[in-house]
Structures are given as structure tokens and as C-alpha cells.
Design a protein that fits this description.
This protein is an all-beta fold. The protein is built from no helices and seven strands. The N and C termini lie far apart (77 Å).
Length: 111
């Protein structure tokens, strides 16, 4: 008679390994903090290798106020700091464009 034994193996990592995961999606996260004064962090993911990535900030009238990123980037997760100390309080929009895809989020600068 054979007995079936079930073993559960749990692996945990306590080291400082440099594992990176390649994103499977094109994503633009909400800036943090929001509202902000005077700086905020914008995070995004690019899924395609060597994509031309553009991240631009617009005011509420649709005028471009700052280009934060305009270059080729490998697939990965990125963060950019945006400092609005020289801009007036108000609603701003940031748009991420890469390989024909684009998405836009809004953020509020409060001084």
C-alpha cells in the first residue's frame, strides 16, 4: 500500500536581490501626493523594448508647460519628479505617449 505525502514548500527572500520584472502593460499611475506643493512623483510603465517615450505636463488651457521625458526607454518601471514651484496653483494634466499609445491623468497644484 502506497501513502501519498503532501509537502508545502514556502520560499521567502530576506536578501537584497536585484530582481526586476518587465511590465506587461503600458501604464501611467496617479501622481503622489495629489494635490501637491511644490513637487510630486509620477510613475509609469513601458512594456515595449526601446520605446520612444514622451511625458508632458499641460495646464488647464491645454498649453504645454513642461516636457519631463522625451527619449527612447527600455521596457520597465520609471518614476519622474515634477516640481511646480514656478507655476501658479491650479489643475494640470500629464500625458504619457509611447508607440501609438497614450494616456492622461490630472493633478492639482495648491500653493
Amino acid at each position: 500500500m502506497l501513502k501519498t505525502i503532501s509537502i508545502e514548500l514556502i520560499i521567502t527572500s530576506t536578501g537584497n536581490n536585484n530582481y526586476t520584472s518587465v511590465p506587461t502593460d503600458f501604464n501611467l499611475a496617479q501622481n503622489y501626493p495629489n494635490p501637491f506643493n511644490p513637487s510630486t512623483v509620477i510613475s509609469y510603465s513601458v512594456k515595449d523594448q526601446t520605446s520612444n517615450v514622451k511625458l508632458v505636463v499641460f495646464n488647464s488651457l491645454g498649453m504645454e508647460v513642461r516636457t519631463l521625458v522625451d527619449q527612447k526607454q527600455n521596457a520597465g518601471n520609471y518614476t519622474v519628479n515634477f516640481n511646480g514651484s514656478n507655476l501658479p496653483s491650479g489643475m494640470y494634466f500629464y500625458k504619457l505617449t509611447s508607440d501609438g499609445l497614450s494616456t492622461t491623468k490630472k493633478m492639482m497644484l495648491v500653493k
